[in-house]
Amino acid sequence: MNWKKAAVRVGQVLVLFVLGYYLIYHNLLLNWHQLSELDWQLRPLPFVLSMLGISAIFLVNTQIWRMVVLAMGGVNIRPWRAAYVWFISNLGRYLPGKVWQIAGMAVMARAEGLSAMDAAASSALHDALVLLAGGVVGLALFPASLAGRFEYLLQWTWLAAPLLLVFLHPGLLNRLLDLAARLAGKPPMTRKLRFRDLLVWFVLNALVWLGYGLCFHWFILSVIPSAGLAWADSAGIYAVGYIIGFLVLIAPGGIGVREFMFTGLLTASLGSVAATVV
């Protein structure tokens, strides 16, 4: 077991080193003279809008999770307690691996009267819905013009978005949750998911991703006022870059991978120097 842990740690160091080389050495140090000559400034209004907007969206996220907990576990957590649990447990994403966020949320939710199985299932389902909604938004809005010679192919990626909606089928999700319960040696879920609830949670999460994209767009404009990106382009880039960073298990919280993706995806529109500044 020790050698496996050591291998994971070495892999994390190597990934962060390669990404750090690209982001810091290649983009910053080698191009420092270009960065210093770029006419950019921090504009207060769009920056403040971005920060206030992202804070409000985080609060909305806490209440979506609260709705999932109520439907799955029958426990009505007080709004401010749901916010506390959500914010604290989300710090776990910055630890190596992706399980600490779910595990932390499950442990803290148990203190609110939720069973261990319901707490873990609610956390996992919430994350799955977040990724599902983000995937649909990313496929639908990602600007094909960033793909170069593959632009023609990416013009049709939005057609794949409806395919992801198959995972909203309550029968499929209920079976997966029951399977997870059996593997964990726990009894199956007593409350079954309903399509109406799943659809509401999905729509809310899709709106959250659009909000993320808008805040990201404001942030870009706060640094590069001349950025020629449309709001929808920013939303597509944000969703794709963030989800790829999240899915790379070896990078805590997607750190490095997410910034690598954002820089690469913004380069086609802003240029490498401006993308690095953002």
Structure notes:
The chain is mainly α. The chain is built from 13 helices and no strands. Helix 6 (116-141) packs across helix 11. It is globular, with a radius of gyration of 20 Å. The model has no long low-confidence stretch (mean pLDDT 79).
In a few lines, what is going on in this structure?
The protein is mainly alpha-helical. It is built from 13 helices and no strands.
Which descriptors would you attach to this protein?
mainly alpha, 13 helices, 0% strand, 278 residues
Binned strand content: under 5%
* CA distance, first residue to last residue: 41 Å
The level of helicity is over 70%
Query: Helix tally?
Result: 13
Whole-number average pLDDT? Answer: 79
Largest sheet: none
Uncertain segments of ≥5 residues (pLDDT<50)? none
Structure summary, number of beta strands: 0
Q: What structural class do the secondary elements suggest?
A: mainly alpha
Rough outline: globular
Order of helices and strands: HHHHHHHHHHHHH
Radius of gyration: 20 Å
List the helices and strands and how they pair.
Layout: H1 2-29, H2 32-37, H3 44-73, H4 79-90, H5 99-110, H6 116-141, H7 151-154, H8 161-164, H9 170-183, H10 195-223, H11 231-247, H12 257-270, H13 272-277
Helix pairs in contact: 1-12, 3-4, 3-6, 3-10, 4-5, 5-6, 6-10, 6-11, 10-11, 11-12
